[in-house]
Amino acid sequence: MTAALLLAAGGPAAAGCRLALALGIDVSRSVDAGEYRVQRDGIVAALNDASVRAAILVPRDGVALAVYEWSGQDHQALLVDWTKVGTAADIDRVAAAVGQAERGIAGPTALGAALDFGRALLARAPDCALGTLDLSGDGRSNDGPAPARVQAAAGWGRARVNGLAIGGHETDIAEYYAREVIRGPGA
Q1: What's the predicted TM-score (pTM) here?
Q2: What is the DSSP string of the chain?
Q3: Which site among 39, 78, 162, 187 is 20 to 30 Å from 3 CA-CA?
Q4: Class of domain 2-180
């Protein structure tokens, strides 16, 4: 998240905001309590980081944030719907909402469905110059559509997708995310 925000700080402005940033948190069965905390607390820590706050609060056009959790093909739940953040109080509200969120129902790992949900979320984002989905997870997709099929589908526009592979369950998970998740200019 830090890199996306810092890059957007100097990027072109649109009518509504500089960056629409959607964050997807893996809550599938393979994610243990520690990995869940790493994801959730990592978002909160980033939002409380001075350099991230400075990037968000650049005095022009702001940033819009949305946060969701995902697991199985039919489990994606918004924790924070699109929220335009332009003040420290706005950032505090988003950080508090994420920090206080209860973990949703664990299920299989439907990475393609998580990507598809993120794509739909970006499609209804505020009018921003850039759209980015940061998707974290700890394993390969084992439910729902294949991530590559979702990535190949229309409707992504200029959106970037960054992948954050967490945990050590699978030795080559970072390579899998690079191949199956990451897409777009600057991702």
Answers
A1: 0.89
A2: -HHHHHHHHTS---SSEEEEEEEEEE-STT--HHHHHHHHHHHHHHHHSHHHHHHHT-TTT-EEEEEEEE-STT-EEEEEEEEEE-SHHHHHHHHHHHHTPPP-------HHHHHHHHHHHHHTS-SEEEEEEEEEESS---SSS-HHHHHHSS--TT-EEEEEE-SSSSTTHHHHHHHHT-BSTT-
A3: 78
A4: alpha beta
